Amino acid sequence: MSETRNTNKEQKKPPLNGRRAIPLNNSNDEENEVPEMEAFGLIPRGFNPTDYLRVVDINMFKEPHEINKQQHHTDKYYSPKLIVRRGQSFQVQVDFNRPYKPETDRFWLEYLIGRYPQQNKGTYIPVLVGDVLKPGEWGAKITHKENNSVRLSIMSSATCIVGKFRLYVAVWTPFGILRTHRNSATDTYILFNPWCQQDAVYLDDEKEREEYVLNDVGIVFHGNINDIKLRSWSYGQFEENILDACLFLMDKAELELSGRGNPIKICRVASAVINSRDDNGVIAGSWDNTYTYGVAPSAWTGSVDILLEYYSSKQPVRYGQCWVFAGVFNTFLRCLGIPARLVTNYSSAHDNNANLQLDFFLDDEGKVDTKLTKDSVWNYHCWNEAWMTRPDLPVGFGGWQVVDGTPQETSDGMYRCGPASVQAIKHGHVCFQFDAPFVYAEVNSDIVYSRRDKNGTQVIERIDTTHIGQLIVTKKVGDDGMMEITEEYKFQEGSEEERLALETAVMYGVKKQTTQDTMYQPQTDVEMEFQAQKAVLGSDFKVTITFRNKSHNYYTATTYLSGNIVFYTGVTKNEFKKHSFKAKLEPSSSSSFDVVIKSSEYLSDLLDQASFHFFVTARINETGKILATQKATVLEIPTLRIKTQGEMVAGKEMSVTVEFTNPLKQTLENVTFRLEGPGVLRTMKKEF
């Protein structure tokens, strides 16, 4: 009998957890019950709370034109609540039921976040009223008393958690603490502060802060190195509900609230949650040109629709490619107050085994063997840079950090990338976290063309050391021009410093295969060049192959041109042009050969970005040596012209005309048109 009683007792006990006393606190959305009366012991019968100081009202000065949002550069957020930046003082007024008497009355403020607030985790913050405010530390002081009101200046910590806090005012009485009841109107959002010197994201140039934190539109550069194209992107970080959607992303990523004051942690988890691989994140990527049940990546005009759809449906939004991931990531960073910019790398290597070389395998005819070749060169790839200090690295590696939300390779078991210090990448110090070797390879790999000989040895035909990472750009500060930042990532090609940085990277564990173990003796006395004429969608164009024979010998070259329609990621969809010819190369002279590409050859298979990729391989018959080169080219797509009519005055109607010339010899059907203007116009969709 006694035994059964025992087991009953044991069942009632909560299960033991040897690790933590309280559950994980990783949701900004969840709340706990806060007692309005917290008694110190037995309450005497005559106790009447109304005899003591009581809070009647709290004024947050939260309108866009009022002091807080003006001083904190948060007046653009479309939100009725108070939004302030950390490490900078803000004003609050408390109205009591009678004048406040500092001799006998005691009150303080309490900021709480999440479901399990704890003082040592920074999720429960009692703010006491004192005489001085210390910069960058929590505190409050009275700046003004009038009738029953007290005006407070409140300072938040420069390392404070970023998110939405609940505010309570607590009053001390001899028998217990009286608190204001839960009032969501006094909720306070605290964001990163690039204007505050003690903040990890401090940026000292006002023009840069206006661009990288406050600008809600931007430019994405795409196309390819010889034909740079641009599209506008609406970041919309201040639009209604976007701030809540961004905080929800951190909840979705299950980032512990106590880690949300650290921009390094926030960037790392966000780079994983921006893509839907392995965590049901924001955007599902698709690179195969079939976008059933979703929006084609090139149809999006901005981040707002994507974030709001995800916030309400909690399901990945379809579909994105690199600039969409980067555009949404940029919105997220700027919205939270982390300075950020979108960067494009032309001829970006996707090196799937991080050995700093892209291996292109040729077959007997000198064509690329698509089964063996796993690495690819993207015409361009977009990622983001976020600005922050890196106290986790040695001095000198703070500043711009690469973060990339496009799912390419896994990092610590998840599809994410960064933050990786741009400075560390430039100098080859790729031992510093996170993912520096992968980014280093994206901007610095060599392309190695090789083929198997009859006896099975690997013969290297050509090594191209300058094709990858030819140009890295971002939008200029203050206008829509292009700013080259290649020098931030790498030294001049061929310079002594560049070789040193490469050797450093290899020393720090970036595998670089040596070419000694394979035969490599290139044909040095003949050069081959390939040029493609600029072409408009729907028209014919020509490509030119030029040989320079610098020797005194007469050579013949069997030449093969392969034209492929490719995704901008460099992955081939199909070959639309095969052309072989024999070239006679006279001694010490140049010869050029033109090949015409007809529109009928490519139109049926075009993809949404109209990219081509040409391989040219030539065998010098007299020596058996191979020359190889490759080039990407993009068709001119007709531009949209936007004209406005009527006065551009706030509150007045105006009309917008969009013009477009159809370059094809056929009628267009099912044309969809999207227009958006942050702060002016929610996205419009029209079918024609």
TrEMBL record:
Reactions it catalyzes: L-glutaminyl-[protein] + L-lysyl-[protein] = [protein]-L-lysyl-N(6)-5-L-glutamyl-[protein] + NH4(+)
Record's compositionally biased regions (Basic and acidic residues): 1-13
Binding positions (Ca(2+)): N444, D446, E493, E498
GO biological process, one term: blood coagulation, fibrin clot formation
Pfam family, one: Transglut_core
Ranges of residues in domain Transglutaminase-like: 314-407
Family of the protein in this entry: Belongs to the transglutaminase superfamily. Transglutaminase family.
Recorded coiled-coil stretches: none
Matches recorded under SUPFAM superfamilies: Cysteine proteinases, E set domains, Transglutaminase, two C-terminal domains
Entry's cofactor comment: Binds 1 Ca(2+) ion per subunit.
InterPro entries on file: Ig-like_fold, Ig_E-set, Papain-like_cys_pep_sf, Transglutaminase, Transglutaminase-like, Transglutaminase-like_sf, Transglutaminase_animal, Transglutaminase_AS
Name of this protein: Coagulation factor XIII A chain
SMART domains linked: TGc (SM00460)
UniProt KW keywords: Acetylation, Acyltransferase, Blood coagulation, Calcium, Cytoplasm, Hemostasis, Metal-binding, Secreted, Transferase, Zymogen
Main location: cytoplasm
Active site, per annotation: C322, H381, D404
EC number(s) given by UniProt: 2.3.2.13
Membrane spanning residue stretches: none
Cited function: Factor XIII is activated by thrombin and calcium ion to a transglutaminase that catalyzes the formation of gamma-glutamyl-epsilon-lysine cross-links between fibrin chains, thus stabilizing the fibrin clot. Also cross-link alpha-2-plasmin inhibitor, or fibronectin, to the alpha chains of fibrin.
The protein's assembly and partners: Tetramer of two A chains (F13A1) and two B (F13B) chains.
Entry's localization field: Cytoplasm; Secreted
GO CC annotations, alphabetized: cytoplasm; extracellular region
GO MF term list: metal ion binding; protein-glutamine gamma-glutamyltransferase activity
Gene3D superfamilies the record matches: Immunoglobulins, Transglutaminase-like
Region (Disordered) residue spans: 1-32
Highest classification ranks of the organism: Eukaryota, Metazoa, Chordata, Craniata, Vertebrata
